[in-house]
What does this fold into?
Amino acid sequence: MTAENGDTTTDGGVTADKEIAQPLGLPRWVIALLPIVLLVLVFGVFAFTSPLAGVQSGEPLPDVTITHATLPSDDTVVLHVTNNGPEAVTISQVLVEEAYWNFRVEGAGGDRTLDPRESARVVVPYHWNPGWDLDVDLVLSDGTTIGHDVEAPQPSPGFSTDVLWTLALIGLFVGVIPVALGMLWFPFLRTMSDRALHAVLLFAAGVLGFLAFDAGFEAFELAGRIPGAYEGNLLVVSGILGTLLLVQAISSWREGRVAAGDSRASSGLWVAYLVALGIGLHNLAEGLAIGSSFALGRVSLGAFLVIGFMLHNVTEGPAVVAPLARDKRPELWHFAALGLLAGAPVILGGWIGSLAYSPTIGAFFLAIGVGAILQVDWEITRMVRAADGRVASATNLLAFFVGFGVMYATDLFVVL
It folds into this structure.
């Protein structure tokens, strides 16, 4: 196809037949680099001449965050602190219940001064009572006070093989077993009519929609506890958007494989793996929450709570296998792989949360799960349309709402 002025178009783009003359006869690569070089020069002039020095007044306010507290024993409190500001800060005093207390700072170069973006642990030898809230304040050298409340403190179990084994067992009952039980509906799904199967697919979309909202709200809640230097809200948005675009790129690659005649790329098994991936990323964040509860001393996961999680997660099984209902039954190892992909990340998340708890890590993993789930919901609706189904029919919309409502109800069961 030929465009005007002799230009030719190739795959949506336009290519000139003859090279366009550059200013002053400079090479194209010089013209491309010129704005960057000039920008660096402008930055250098601004930094070394300090044109705003005459109008600046006062010093920047300190910005210090206490992200969380751990309690390795009943006579020690450890505060995890990050300096978000542009200037170094020095911790002068620590108050516990409005009384000054001895302390030491670990991880700050051997002194009490935190450089910009530096994190450290403030260790306070204080005997606390389980269940009694603690009010702790850091006093900086300029008099600034940073407060933190430790609610219902409980001793942190620390790192041990017993803790890892316990978290693995909890992950098995919370993630792997419920998903596997839900997948047992697969033979029944294959007997359904197209209309009923489309409703089940929209039910699965409702389940995933609830998980996306639930994880999104929790991610933004955690973002408020992220050190200001990391821009918590923007970190969450970046995680959601980045994962959404990544999964979309994988989906576009799959469409290219379909166009090339690859039958495997056009099967429901592909969508099933995407669903399992989205659920697995969400369950990874769920495992992080369980593991962090161990790290922070909130080890209250009794049998009742585990049963609640099982009820909450068993509805994820049909969501995984529903896309396979109209295809030839895959080999059994695919079912095992799908179940592990969706459920086993609870175990991995529990281990990560117990060993390296951080609000930043938790919020980011939750955001990744949200982005993946949103793309998976889009894939499910496309699958229904491709099968000559109408996504917005009354039955399908009701099924979507039922899926969302069931997850909401079981989530209440877990909370209560």
